[in-house]
Amino acid sequence: MPVPDAVPAPELPAVLRASMLLRCLAIQGSWNYEILVGNGVGFCVEPALRQLPGGMDAQPYKDALARQSVYFNAHPYLASLAVGALARVELEQVPAVRIERFRTALCGPLGSLGDRLVWAAWLPACSLMALLLFGFGWTPLGVVAGFLLLYNVGHLGLRDWGLRAGWKHGLRVATAMGHPVLQHGPRYIGRVSAVLGGLALPLAVHRAIGGQEPLSPIPMGVAVATPVLAVLLVRLQGRAEGWRVVLALLAVFVLYSVVR
Amino acid sequence: MLMAFLAVLVDTIPLALLAGVVGLDVVSFPQAMISRPIVAATLGGAFVGAPEAGLVCGTALECLALESLPVGASRYPEWGSASVVAGAVAAVGATSASFPSVGAFAVGVLVGITTGWIGGWTMVKHRQIIAAFARPRLDQLAAGSRNTVVGLQVFGMTLDLARGALLAACMYLLARPLAAQVNLRWTVSEDLSRAIIVTCVAAVAAASVWKDFHAISGTRRLFVASLAVGTVLVVAGA
């Protein structure tokens, strides 16, 4: 018997795709510690479910929406891959037990893939690029626009790709998870980030301290103190987060400067 | 007195709304990263007429934010609405194209970190409230009620918007007079003060880049080499 996903995917109507994509932007709107992003998945799949026989008032729609609104965990951007795949299997009326098993199986990989690619690679890379633009002396508008454009090309592209790939592959969505960008992207982005970070830090620091003559005592002091403090922070890993250390140091410094 | 209060209020209301929208972006909608400090603080500064001061403060907070990955259920500082407040506070005493006054800059960074910390706690509470709101409605969810599904999303997002706005309004009202006072009483030289603040945040950024990427083969050498190139660019460009 041919499996439902072995047949070519039907066309995903443009309006439906736009509606689901827009809803995917709000997939974490009701994120909580009990069902996590579960209700959000139901919210995103819902426009597709209206095409089930009988429409919104019929039992297939209600059963499908109930199935899709229970516990689910995934990276918010890659959740669109699940949304596309789940919408397709629901419209193909794959047996409920199989959909539930499939839905459960999607949770883990979509979380770890997304965390590695987006939170640990793409976002820091774009942040470092913004610091580099600042270091190059760009205006506030330029830095903000540059960062937002770069980041959201990746962000929106990933969400849109996920939705289309999920719809295309249905139950065989694991094929899409093997995409080279998902598998190898973090490694390459990490290398680019190392270069961006190395370039950005001296330039951004120089501008932030007011563009003083680099070989004068204060910038030289910054050039020595920064790596020393950075090494200490690396060694403190797991015991104290950097922002807590900075909070303490700055609080003492402000008090000293104001009270003395 | 009344006029001064009204002037603060005129600044606070739009800032609070901006912080609400930016706070919403952190998790709920649309995660386009307008909530990153370098964006949010610049917007905060721009809202009170000093985008450059907001940008400098945002850059400092961005260095700190590099360290905290917003992964799933973990608790992390909520940098979005915090950075709006920080950018606006750092703008106290600055003009549209000027760097922040050093006292306001220090207070801006401090307030940004503190507000981010409190914001992280409010996010946890926000999630607990959504769960409590959802619990009596689980039967309706299990029955496939569209209204319940949509209602939960709208409730969560509205609450998040209000959370960010309220937090920012409170923190800004407290921190703005503080920044003005600190500006007046600051005694350490401006260049040295700026250098101390920037050293602290840059060290966190350098440590974060190292921790995030050192495990990938070749990145340590790339990082050190590009640090050298960046330093040469600074010296050559002076």
Query: For the residues shown, what is the average pLDDT of chain B?
Result: 95
Overall morphology of chain B: flat
Structural class of chain B: mainly alpha
Number of helices of chain B: 9
Q: DSSP helix count of chain A? A: 10
Characterize the main sheet of chain A: none
Which pair of chains has the greatest number of interface residues, and how are they split between the two chains?
A-B, 105 and 113 residues
Number of strands of chain A: 0
- Taken in chain order, the helices and strands of chain B follow as HHHHHHHHH
Radius of gyration of chain B: 20 Å
Helix content of chain A: over 70%
Structural domain tally of chain A: 2
| Helix/strand/pairing category of chain A | mainly alpha
The fraction of residues in strands of chain B falls at under 5%
Q: How big a fraction of the residues of chain A is strand?
A: under 5%
- Helix proportion range of chain B: over 70%
The protein's oligomeric status is: heterodimer
Task: Estimate the global geometry of chain A from the Cα principal axes.
Answer: elongated
Query: How would a textbook summarize the main sheet of chain B?
Result: none
Number of domains of chain B: 1
Care to give the gist of this entry?
Chain A has 10 helices and no strands. Chain A is an all-alpha fold and 260 residues long.
How would you portray this structure in words?
The complex is a heterodimer of chains A (260) and B (238). Chain A has 10 helices and no strands. Chain A has 260 residues and is mostly helical. In chain A, helix 4 (79-91) runs antiparallel to helix 5 and helix 5 runs antiparallel to helix 6 (140-169). The radius of gyration of chain A is 24 Å and the shape is elongated. Chain A starts with 13 loop residues before the first helix and ends with a helix. Chain B has 238 residues and is an all-alpha fold. Chain B is 78% helix and 0% strand. Chain B contains 9 helices and no strands.
